[in-house]
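Progress against Task 2.4 (sequence-to-structure conversion) is shown through the following example record, which the project officer requested during the mid-term review.
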Amino acid sequence: MKIFVSHLIILLWSLVALTTKAQAQQEPREVTGTVLNNMGQPLAGASVTVVGEKNGAVSTNSAGGFVIRTAAEKPMIHVSYAGYDEDEQQMLGTEPLTFSLNPINKYKKQLKKRSKAAQKAWKH
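Structure tokens generated for the chain above:
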């Protein structure tokens, strides 16, 4: 009888340990970071997503900062911004991520053409 009770207690403790571990893995964690352009200026409104998850994107604030929640242990973070190359980084530790996006050259040329046309229209 004592052996049965001791085995039952061990089984219950094992079950509690497994349940606690499973809950810890499912709890979402916060991934923080900053999105900057190639000159170190913050990019407000950049789209930040976790690759492979459907929980939606978040946008960066006016300082280029973001906070996104994920249940993944080592999430891959994807960042995009209009007129800039996209970037991905994997979150390995607890340190905030920093993304530095480079402008797309073709887009820069189009932007210059449009701004010159806008300046001409403004003068007239």
